[in-house]
Hints:
- This protein is an alpha+beta fold.
- The chain has 8 helices and 25 strands.
Amino acid sequence: MSxxxxxxxxxxxxxxxFTSANAQTxxxxxxxxxxxxxxxxxPTAETAxxxxxxxxxxxxxxxxxxxxxxxSFESIRVGLKRDLGIDYNELALGDNFVDTKGVWLxxxxxxxxxxxxxxxxxxxxxxxxxxPGPIVGLIEDFWQRALADVGLPGPDQGNGGKxxxxxxxxxxxxPAEGYYILRSPMNNHNFxxxxxxxxxxxxxxxxxxxxxxVYPWSxxxxxxxxxxxxxxxxxxxxxxxxGLEYWERVSAVINNNPVHERDRFFMAMLKPxxxxxxxxxxxxxxxxxxxxxxxxxGEAMARTILFDAEERFSSATxxxxxxxxxxxxxxxxxxxxxxxxxxxxxxxxxxxGAIYMSPAIGRKTPGPGSTYTQAFKDRDGNRLDCGKSYRLxxxxxxxxxxxxxxxxxxTATRSMIQNARNDAAxxxxxxxxxxxxxxxxxxxxxxxxxxxxxxxxxQTVSGKGFYPxxxxxxxxxxxYEGTWKLADLELLQ
Length: 493
């Protein structure tokens, strides 16, 4: 190329660049939030305000979805203290089972749950003492990451043992033996435990749970007795709240815990909204408006990802050709490994509808632990309506080594349907009418199917939506081999 050709080529490139730059400097643009106006490339004051409001609104909705697991656990802590007067290191126990009077994400009334909140914020380890016997439980941080299973599925294997929960950056000495040491990335923890009912002896199962102890490391030589409060038959609301109260709980969790590396960008997103590590939550009028709308839209997004999971996840369907979905679509560590990403949507799908996660929950292979399925439509693809009556035929020989249960949940609260019978579940522990081929017909509706089927019936309440949640405890091979499956619920005329 000659010198003259080079000069011409450079001039053409410069002209094209100049034209391209000018083409990108628009005086106006249309968008989903209305007209955006610029003058000589600068946003007008109105456009700048509109865009900042939209930016912060989008951040608020995404922060709502991100924070849900931690707000859910903080809401359990707040609810137990407000409704039962239970503080840290105290046991809330369903000694006569958890029932429909308590509002808990997909709890069930076939289990005598025990719940203890633990705070390591003073920099001191805590000891969790597990008695020997048929007991199962798990220790989780407030992001609902399991630190350990305890009891039968834990390292103590039902023989009892002491777990030492160590706070972040703890520099003190630790015992060389006698404890299962758990180093935690957080200060806030939730410990859930339940006694397994053997030979219908509920009292014995409760007695085992009452032997659990939680106390600070400094009290190890002479620990105080564990204060226990019954939560059976009590009106407790453990759900995440709406509006600004949701963000108050986000702020509380952030201020009492270290910020993890994975969450630093969310800290940046929350800062313009008035939520900042080490600062009191005092949003101004603009921030309040955006946060309240962000919570409303975020909750709607979360609800959609739970009830329409098959639109988001290809692996949602549990039994091909049916409307039954797997409840657990995430890994216990909340990470997808191939391709690598944090399971934000999968985590939200599970934790908007449920609480607690461990490797033993949502098993994909036979063995100790549990897995669950849920359905939001009947055989014809219509949403389930509490004002109508349905039948579900459970095939013979459910694939479980322990037991199965089916609980009905209110779509509004994702908690047990509150009915006059104060009973939202049936299980293999119940005396159920069985068909000649070993199958069992279960009934759901506002009116009884008749005296001989009374035990097979869960009462619903008109005006609500509902969904069944079928639990397999100790799932066996036929569940995964496709040789056993649930049929869809059938609307009764």
